[in-house]
Amino acid sequence: MKRTLLLVDIDGVCRNLEPAMVRIYERLFDEKPHFPIRSWGMDGIFPKLDEPEKFFFIDHAKEIFLESEMMPNCKDCLARISTAFDIKFVTAQLNANRRYTEQWLNNHGLDIYPVEFVDAQADKGLVKGDILLDDGIHNLDAFSTTGRLAVCFNRLYNMSWKGLRVFTWMNFEIFMFYHPEVQKAVALN
Fold first, then answer.
1. How far apart are CA 177 and CA 144, in angstroms?
2. Taken in order 40, 157, 139, 116, is the CA torsion positive or negative?
3. Which terminus has fewer CB within 10 Å in the chain: N or C?
4. Which superfamily is assigned to 5-15+70-187 in CATH?
């Protein structure tokens, strides 16, 4: 019997970009952002930025991607989950930033899991796998419409997601071993 493949998003799930974004913004503009981030596009959060995505993910990508912290318990929970499930990271990255993500995974000991990069506009619903853990509603929607299990990693900007949700890595680990929907997904393999 083949093992169930868990697809795990990186940014917003494993890697917490927000503290690095705040640090850079405060350093360069000497003001605090208008937190918390409640929208995917960061609308109104960084008032001195017309294009926050370009500023952070192109102009300051190296610092953002390499110096961001790992979410609490991520590595240990992934290790325990990997005893029963295959794991693959799937993340939308600009080509120029992929090397920073690979280095970040290496620096944090997460390079033992394969990673699949998709284009920023790609549909994660097309990625082969059985379960998706993601923070982007568009990714969760695309994956769940294929009939597979999509689980939301709770963030303030994804509160409108109506499906399954976890709040921490410890919560997700318990979910993976005991939730009936996971057991159904495993049975399909």
1. 20
2. positive
3. N
4. HAD superfamily/HAD-like (3.40.50.1000)
Report the pLDDT value the prediction gives residue 39, as an integer from 0 to 100: 75
* Contact present, 172 and 150 (Cβ < 8 Å): no
User: What are the domain boundaries of the chain?
Assistant: 5-15+70-187, 18-67
Report phi then psi at 88, rounded to 5.
-140, 135
* DSSP letter string, 144-188: HTTTSEEEEE--GGGTT--SEEESSHHHHHHHHHH-HHHHHHHHT
Cβ pair 108, 129 in contact under 8 A:
no
pLDDT at 188: 77
Residue ranges of the chain whose pLDDT lies below 50? none
The verdict on whether omega for the bond into residue 36 sits within 30 degrees of 0, i.e. cis, is yes
